[in-house]
């Protein structure tokens, strides 16, 4: 009898461990899954360290926005020349809101016309200049805090606004999440090799806008298989998705990447610009 009781207890404990493991795996958000790459040395080595660059602009300015957790956050704002409810949220790579991202935000601002461009700082003023720091900051990014910052940006834009989002790498996944958080105000999202949403139910319920995905065929992290699953889920949910693959590696179009694939990056930029002009029209 004692042996039987011990066996039942052992079986219960084993099942509990497996259940806990399943919870961890099944309920890891796409942004958390991407943040786990921070501990991968190969992933870190894929990112060339950015060249020093300070962005100067007569139109752009740093502002403070109130966040949903009662704090404040930083953002780089380029205001539309005339009153406009159109907003493009720009979300940085794992380096943080550096000069390269501000420069790219202004590039879209110039091309899109009368659109407010808001580049969010999800690292609360921390900007990495080395892979080690970028890895540290991305790994430390707290999902609740990041969502509070995004919600603060949505509140800043206000009800009735039209919002699109774009981001690269770490920011690619968050661009999709930001659009999902925008609800009825969402008009579109551009993901540059970020982790797509994995939960089919969330795709069905929260992605009610077109999505453009820019990916690299030789990406060892956001692999073609990861993208294929997202494509199938979006098709199952009857959602609008355009995917463009490039014969390149991860981070090929990152604004901070001095070794980016210029031809592929320019083609992807033109496609993203056309997409944003369409959804924010």
Automatic annotation (TrEMBL):
Keyword Acyltransferase on entry: no
Keyword Ion transport: no
One Pfam family in the UniProt entry: DLH
Alphabetized InterPro entries for the sequence: AB_hydrolase_fold, Dienelactn_hydro, Dienelactone_hydrolase-like
Signal peptide (UniProt feature, chain positions): 1-19
Span of domain Dienelactone hydrolase: 85-279
SUPFAM superfamilies: alpha/beta-Hydrolases (SSF53474)
Keywords, sorted A to Z: Hydrolase, Signal
GO molecular function: hydrolase activity
Protein name (Swiss-Prot/TrEMBL): Dienelactone hydrolase family protein
Organism: Fulvivirga marina
């Amino acid at each position: 009898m004692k042996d039987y009781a011990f066996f039942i207890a052992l079986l219960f404990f084993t099942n509990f461990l497996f259940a806990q493991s399943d919870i961890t795996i099944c309920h890891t958000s796409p942004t958390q899954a991407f943040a786990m790459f921070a501990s991968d040395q190969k992933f870190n080595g894929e990112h060339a360290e950015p060249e020093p660059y300070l962005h100067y602009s007569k139109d752009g300015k740093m502002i403070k926005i109130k966040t949903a957790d009662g704090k404040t956050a930083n953002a780089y704002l380029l205001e539309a020349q005339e009153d406009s409810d159109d907003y493009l949220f720009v979300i940085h790579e794992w380096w943080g809101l550096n000069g390269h991202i501000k420069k790219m935000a202004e590039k879209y601002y110039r091309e899109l016309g009368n659109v407010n461009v808001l580049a969010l700082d999800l690292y609360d003023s921390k900007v990495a200049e080395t892979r080690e720091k970028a890895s540290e900051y991305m790994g430390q990014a707290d999902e609740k805090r990041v969502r509070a910052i995004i919600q603060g940006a949505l509140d800043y834009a206000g009800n009735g606004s039209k919002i699109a989002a774009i981001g690269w790498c770490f920011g690619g996944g968050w661009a999709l999440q930001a659009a999902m958080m925008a609800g009825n105000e969402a008009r579109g999202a551009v993901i540059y090799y970020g982790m797509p949403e994995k939960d089919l139910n969330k795709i069905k319920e929260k992605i009610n806008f077109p999505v453009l995905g820019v990916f690299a065929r030789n990406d060892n992290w956001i692999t073609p298989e990861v993208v294929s699953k997202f494509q199938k889920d979006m098709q199952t949910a009857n959602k609008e998705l355009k995917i463009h693959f490039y014969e390149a590696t991860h981070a090929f179009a990152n604004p901070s990447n001095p070794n980016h694939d210029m031809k592929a990056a320019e083609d992807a930029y033109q496609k993203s610009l056309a997409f944003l002009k369409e959804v924010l029209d």
